[in-house]
């Protein structure tokens, strides 16, 4: 599954390059808060798998400094909500240094952990940071959906010489996925910055990332029974955005719906709509683009309210039909 793919990617890269190490809360002796680093401390020891105190600003600063000094840290946040404690290190220390040093000082670091809403953890643990980090030049921002994405993109992120924010989803950790023969290889990587068409279609383009790829595929299956063929694009990378892939699809389907779990204002969907308007695909649209997003409120705790605060399959189906005017 997804969790094992992440574990495999880290294991292979730790083995391949002795400069790679993992640090964060509960990553070592406890085997990871979500068991993503299971077995790694036992295999690699205290020097490579490091339990930190609960001080994001501290251990993120240590990790960024280590990257500047030539190591290749993987900095795990127990959730990306807690990366707010360390956002100065992520943005001002990691993201801007390569540019400010005129290319003399690279910062090869990966910031990873669960992002976006889990279940029943309320407002302070449910925010999606794709748009926040996607806003910042100097970062690469990756958002995998399935196990193959997770493995190939995490390996690319660790090998990248610049900072990568790697946004996982806690609700995907336990989901089993088929993995191709090719993805089992130690040389398997997925290039950062390339989206993937997960389902071919002719009537409408759905652009989505992370967990919501599943929702879009489920919605597409329902719509197909009604004769509506949806093309589903799994972004995989938030920054740099694969605008070419989106434009090619929109020029074919003439309709666009974006789907994400984050808030609407200045979100991933908003950016996609803007980029399509500014580019050659705009003239191909037969209807306004539509966004499906999380609701514009801090996440409620009650389950019924939480369900109504996040995009459901029915919301996606509704938006597609509205866009297609059926």
From TrEMBL:
Q: Which CDD domains match?
A: TPP_PYR_E1-PDHc-beta_like (cd07036)
What top-level class of enzyme does the UniProt entry assign? Answer: oxidoreductase
UniProt-annotated location(s): Mitochondrion
Give the UniProt entry's GO cellular component terms.
mitochondrion; pyruvate dehydrogenase complex
Q: Does the keyword Transit peptide apply?
A: yes
The molecular function GO annotations come to:
metal ion binding; pyruvate dehydrogenase (acetyl-transferring) activity
EC numbers: 1.2.4.1
Under catalytic activity, the entry for this protein gives:
N(6)-[(R)-lipoyl]-L-lysyl-[protein] + pyruvate + H(+) = N(6)-[(R)-S(8)-acetyldihydrolipoyl]-L-lysyl-[protein] + CO2
Q: What is the superkingdom listed in this entry's lineage?
A: Eukaryota
* SMART domains named among the record's database cross-references: Transket_pyr
Q: How does it assemble?
A: Heterotetramer of two PDHA1 and two PDHB subunits. The heterotetramer interacts with DLAT, and is part of the multimeric pyruvate dehydrogenase complex that contains multiple copies of pyruvate dehydrogenase (E1), dihydrolipoamide acetyltransferase (DLAT, E2) and lipoamide dehydrogenase (DLD, E3). These subunits are bound to an inner core composed of about 48 DLAT and 12 PDHX molecules. Interacts with DLAT.
Question: Its function?
Answer: The pyruvate dehydrogenase complex catalyzes the overall conversion of pyruvate to acetyl-CoA and CO(2), and thereby links the glycolytic pathway to the tricarboxylic cycle.
Q: What is this protein called?
A: Pyruvate dehydrogenase E1 component subunit beta
Specify the species.
Sparus aurata
